[in-house]
């Protein structure tokens, strides 16, 4: 995944593009670059590493048209040459690209036989050169169309032409959105890139090509016609996408959960009840997602199983093809995704639709690919989540799934009341006191090699999510288990001092307590999360009991713990190594 920004307006393009790129570094940050059209020349800078120090003030002269890219290498190592933008041999075209060109070898060979030279190891460098190749006979826009028709794979690209100053952008399976300001037009992979300038956006569809000249026009490659795309106003504001007084987005987003949960449950009643009706009507129900969103699916499946007679099967999106024989027009597939751009999720949607299944979604990013592929969707309304880890969006997913589950039982009102009551618990959990208390625990745990997390029933998905939160940001090996499962093998790894986090509900807790005693007696250091302190706990994290809604609260201290562990170990919690916010490649 990479970040793209393009600008055409009245201001200095480099001064706008570089800070905007910085806002997209969560999408990739191993190298970056910009190119602007300056007095009939394309001038550019390309650098390995992050945008740092004086980079932010780079000024490539008085140009007011430009493109920028922050890269997450997929094709070719991390070097200045491989960073984007890439230029055509004649220097007339510069391109930034996100995605993978599957037929790149064949296209490279074709260009080489036509005397084109390559300076990078990337597949992306094919694009400006193919455009140059076609520009010999046709205008820029047509050359871009012909180029895109030859490319296989998912992409989002922006190309600029030196001679005309035209910007041409296109997407297929990879996000790209336009920002329409008063005197400026932006193209970016994600809205926070231009939120300081405008909240008027145009979402591009797959196959769309947008031409930004004196006017803005749209063409769809698949339909082979000019198309109209509407300007939409988005609710997010620039402040939401900034760190404010927080050192990191992750901590800011953890602390925002009082508001994000409130917004998640402030939904159109009919929409929630509509989902509930669809669930009741379906012959079979699947909850499909990846990563943290999958843990939310598992939780949703347990909730429905516990409270209703619905058997909703949680499925990892990347494994969905194994369920395809069970999908027909009476099946309901609910996909859950923060970004709405995860390629495995989008593939699962495609497969489900091919089988004539009914596909709905719970998603955070309005206008994302997913919102366009499904019959209807519930927005999480969590606001932009910039930190790579899912934090506030995970609890929003749990809150929405809880509300749906209540609605399946015709208890929407009761559910809403219970969720509203929960918000004051969340308030205490995100307070400074709690954060300081958990800092102590982080100090105890910062040098450990392994952490195990256990929970039963609704606390099992929480155990899985806790382990994911800890390992992805602190790089400490963490593994989550169902309480009853540890003794089937992994207990062999427990030795004196091995930290084990245990989620203990107020009621029906005998079995998890007995699992805890099993590990405690092998020397484990027990970190207990629950409403009451128990003698076996070595460290106690108090979370008021919220019954079936416990999971929404219990994950919060772990998010905070994971954050402190990362900071204490000197890692950047917003950009963990090897990870990108949304996984748009297979
Ligand atoms: O955008 P999505 O919800 O589809 O993303 C799914 C996963 O990639 C995501 O939850 C990932 O596991 C995060 N790193 C979790 O913090």
From TrEMBL:
One of its GO terms (molecular function) is carbohydrate derivative binding. Its EC number is 2.6.1.16. Keywords: Aminotransferase, Glutamine amidotransferase, Repeat, Transferase. GO terms for biological process: fructose 6-phosphate metabolic process; protein N-linked glycosylation; UDP-N-acetylglucosamine metabolic process. It catalyses: D-fructose 6-phosphate + L-glutamine = D-glucosamine 6-phosphate + L-glutamate. Catalyzes the first step in hexosamine metabolism, converting fructose-6P into glucosamine-6P using glutamine as a nitrogen source. This is Glutamine--fructose-6-phosphate aminotransferase [isomerizing]. It comes from Marine Group III euryarchaeote CG-Bathy1.
């Amino acid at each position: 995944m990479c970040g793209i920004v393009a600008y055409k307006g009245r201001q200095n393009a480099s001064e706008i593009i570089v800070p905007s790129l910085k806002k997209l570094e969560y999408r990739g940050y191993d190298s970056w670059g910009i190119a602007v059209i300056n007095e009939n020349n394309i001038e550019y800078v390309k650098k390995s590493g992050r945008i740092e120090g004086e980079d932010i003030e780079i000024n490539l002269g008085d140009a007011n048209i430009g493109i920028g890219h922050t890269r997450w290498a997929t094709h070719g190592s991390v070097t200045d040459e491989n960073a984007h933008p890439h230029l055509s041999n004649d220097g007339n075209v510069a391109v930034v690209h996100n995605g993978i060109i599957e037929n790149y070898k064949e296209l490279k060979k074709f260009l080489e036989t036509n005397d084109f030279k390559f300076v990078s190891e990337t597949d992306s460098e094919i694009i400006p050169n193919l455009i140059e190749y076609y520009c010999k006979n046709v205008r820029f826009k047509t050359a871009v169309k012909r180029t895109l028709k030859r490319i296989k794979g998912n992409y989002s690209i922006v190309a600029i032409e030196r001679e005309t100053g035209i910007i041409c952008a296109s997407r297929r399976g990879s996000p790209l959105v336009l920002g329409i300001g008063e005197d400026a037009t932006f193209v970016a992979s994600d809205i926070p890139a231009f939120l300081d300038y405008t909240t008027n956006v145009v979402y591009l569809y797959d196959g769309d090509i947008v031409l930004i000249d004196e006017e803005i026009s749209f063409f769809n490659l698949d339909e082979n016609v000019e198309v109209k795309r509407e300007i939409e106003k988005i609710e997010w504001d620039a402040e939401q996408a900034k760190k404010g007084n927080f050192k990191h987005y992750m901590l800011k987003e953890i602390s925002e959960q009082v508001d994000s949960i409130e917004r998640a449950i402030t939904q159109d009643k009919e929409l929630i009840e509509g989902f509930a009706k669809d669930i009741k009507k379906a012959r079979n129900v699947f909850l499909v997602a990846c990563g943290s969103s999958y843990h939310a699916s598992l939780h949703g499946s347990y909730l429905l199983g516990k409270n209703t007679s619905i058997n909703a099967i949680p499925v990892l999106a990347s494994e969905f093809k194994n369920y395809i024989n069970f999908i027909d027009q009476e099946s309901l597939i609910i996909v859950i995704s923060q970004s709405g751009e995860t390629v495995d999720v989008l593939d699962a949607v495609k497969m489900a639709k091919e089988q004539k299944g009914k596909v709905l979604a719970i998603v955070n990013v309005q206008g994302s690919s997913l919102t366009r592929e499904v019959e209807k969707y519930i927005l999480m309304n969590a606001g932009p989540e910039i930190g790579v880890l899912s934090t506030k969006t995970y609890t929003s997913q749990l809150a929405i799934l809880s509300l749906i589950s209540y609605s399946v039982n015709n208890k929407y009102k009761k559910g809403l009341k219970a969720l509203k009551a929960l918000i004051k618990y969340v308030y205490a959990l995100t307070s400074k006191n709690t954060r300081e208390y958990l800092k102590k625990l982080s100090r105890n745990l910062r040098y450990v090699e392994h952490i195990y997390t256990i929970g039963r029933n609704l606390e099992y998905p929480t155990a899985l999510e806790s382990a994911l939160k800890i390992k992805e940001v602190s790089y400490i090996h963490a593994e989550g288990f169902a309480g009853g499962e540890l003794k089937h093998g992994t207990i062999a790894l427990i030795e004196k001092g091995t930290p084990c986090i245990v989620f203990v509900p107020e009621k029906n807790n005998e079995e998890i307590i007995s699992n805890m005693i099993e590990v405690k007696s092998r020397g484990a250091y027990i970190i207990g999360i629950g409403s009451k302190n128990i003698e076996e706990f070595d460290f106690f994290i108090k979370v008021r009991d919220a019954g079936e809604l416990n999971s929404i609260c219990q994950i919060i201290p772990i998010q905070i713990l994971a954050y402190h562990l990362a900071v204490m170990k000197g890692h950047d919690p917003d950009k963990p190594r090897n990870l990108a916010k949304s996984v748009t490649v297979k």
